[in-house]
Design a protein that fits this description.
Length: 342
C-alpha cells in the first residue's frame, strides 16, 4: 500500500456503497488509475443490485467488504477505516460511489496534508458532473445551525483556486490523517448519514487540527444520486443531525450566544418538513433526539473537556450570515462576516 511518492506513507481509499452498481464502475475506474497507488476498499451496505458481483468480477485488486444490511454512510466508512488501519494505512481517503476522481486527486490531497503537520483533513475541489459548477470547495458551518457546501452552484471562474483553511470537509471526497482519527475518533454512528462529515470536522478543529481545501485535487460528483431517491430518510437524518451537530460541539459561551439563532433555524427546518406533510420524517426525528439526549450530552462533555482551542478561534471559523441555502421567517439575509477560506 505504499504511495510510491518517496515519503513511505501508506494510503487507502474507502468507497461506501448501497445499491449503487450503476455508479460504481466510473468511480472505481477513476481510483484504480490514480497517479499514486493505494488500497481501494469498497464497503457494501447489504446491496441487492449485484454491486458485490461487479466488484469481484471487474476489480480483483479492490478489497470488498459486504455488510449484512445498510449501516449508513458512517457505519460503512468506519468499517473501511478500521480495515485500512489494520493494514497499516497512515492516511485514509473517502470517495462517494457517485463521484469520480481526476488522476492526481489522491496525490494532491496527500501532498497538502504531508506539507502541513497541523492539517488533519484535506478536502477536494468538487465540481458537478457538468464540470463547470461547484458542488463544494470545503464546507461552512453557520451560527444558525446549518452546515452547507462552500461555493455550491457557483460557476467555476477561478474564485476558489487558492489553497485555504476551511471549517469542514465533505466526506464525499477528502483525505484524513489516521493519527488524527486515533485521537478524536471516527465518524459518529448516531448520525448514520448527513452532517457526519461536519461533525468530524468540528471535533478535529476543537482538538487543534486544521482542515485544508486543496483546489488542485479535483473530483466530480453526481449530486444527490442516492439521497434523492429517499427524501423522507434524508429529512429524518438532517433534522436529528442538525440538532446533534450544534449541541455536541459548540463551546459553552458560543452555545449561549448562538442558541437563539439555532432555535430559529431548527424551527424553520421543522416547519418546512411539516409544510411538506412529511410527518414520517418529522415525528421520528424528534423522538430520536429525545431518547438520545443523555448520550448526546455525555459526548458533549467529553468533547468540550478535551478542547484545546479558544472560543475566539472557534468563532472565527464559523459562518456568521444566514446560509444561502436557507431562508428564515423575519430574518433578512445579510452579508456574512468571513470565515476561513471565504
Amino acid at each position: 500500500m505504499s504511495t510510491g511518492n518517496g515519503t513511505g506513507a501508506r494510503v487507502a481509499v474507502v468507497v461506501p456503497n448501497w445499491n449503487g452498481r450503476h455508479l460504481l464502475e466510473e468511480c472505481l475506474d477513476s481510483l484504480v488509475s490514480q497517479s499514486i497507488p493505494a488500497q481501494v476498499i469498497v464497503v457494501d451496505n447489504g446491496s441487492v443490485d449485484g454491486s458485490g458481483s461487479l466488484v469481484r468480477s471487474r476489480y480483483p485488486g479492490v478489497r470488498l467488504l459486504e455488510l449484512d444490511r445498510n449501516h449508513g454512510f458512517t457505519g460503512a466508512v468506519n468499517r473501511g477505516i478500521e480495515l485500512a488501519g489494520e493494514d497499516g494505512a497512515d492516511f485514509v481517503a473517502l470517495l462517494n460511489n457517485d463521484a469520480r476522481a481526476d488522476v492526481s486527486w489522491l496525490e494532491r490531497l496527500l501532498a497538502a496534508v504531508e506539507e502541513h503537520s497541523e492539517v488533519g483533513i484535506a478536502t477536494s475541489k468538487v465540481l458537478m458532473t457538468d464540470g463547470r459548477h461547484f458542488d463544494s470547495a470545503g464546507n461552512h458551518y453557520s451560527v444558525w445551525g446549518h452546515p452547507f457546501p462552500r461555493g455550491r452552484g457557483e460557476l467555476d471562474a477561478g474564485q476558489y483556486d487558492e489553497r485555504a483553511l476551511v471549517f469542514g470537509a465533505s466526506g464525499g471526497a477528502s483525505l484524513y490523517r489516521m493519527a488524527m482519527l486515533a485521537e478524536i475518533g471516527v465518524f459518529d454512528d448516531d448520525f448514520f448519514a448527513y452532517y457526519e462529515d461536519d461533525d468530524l470536522s468540528f471535533r478535529a478543529q476543537l482538538a487543534g487540527w486544521k482542515v485544508m481545501y486543496e483546489p488542485t485535487s479535483l473530483a466530480h460528483h453526481r449530486v444527490a444520486a442516492t439521497s434523492s431517491k429517499h427524501p423522507t430518510l434524508r429529512r429524518y437524518h438532517v433534522t436529528k443531525n442538525a440538532f446533534y451537530l450544534f449541541h455536541k460541539n459548540m463551546p459553552r459561551r458560543l452555545y449561549v450566544r448562538y442558541l437563539p439563532r439555532f432555535g430559529v433555524g431548527f424551527l424553520s427546518l421543522l416547519a418546512g418538513i411539516a409544510k411538506r406533510g412529511d410527518f414520517a420524517a418529522l415525528f421520528p426525528s424528534l423522538w430520536r433526539i429525545a431518547v438520545t439526549l443523555g448520550p448526546l450530552m455525555s459526548k458533549r462533555r467529553s468533547i468540550q473537556r478535551t478542547r484545546v482551542v479558544s472560543d475566539a478561534y472557534v468563532d472565527s471559523i464559523l459562518y456568521h450570515g444566514v446560509p444561502p441555502t436557507h431562508r428564515y421567517p423575519f430574518v433578512r439575509p445579510a452579508r456574512s462576516r468571513p470565515g476561513p477560506g471565504r
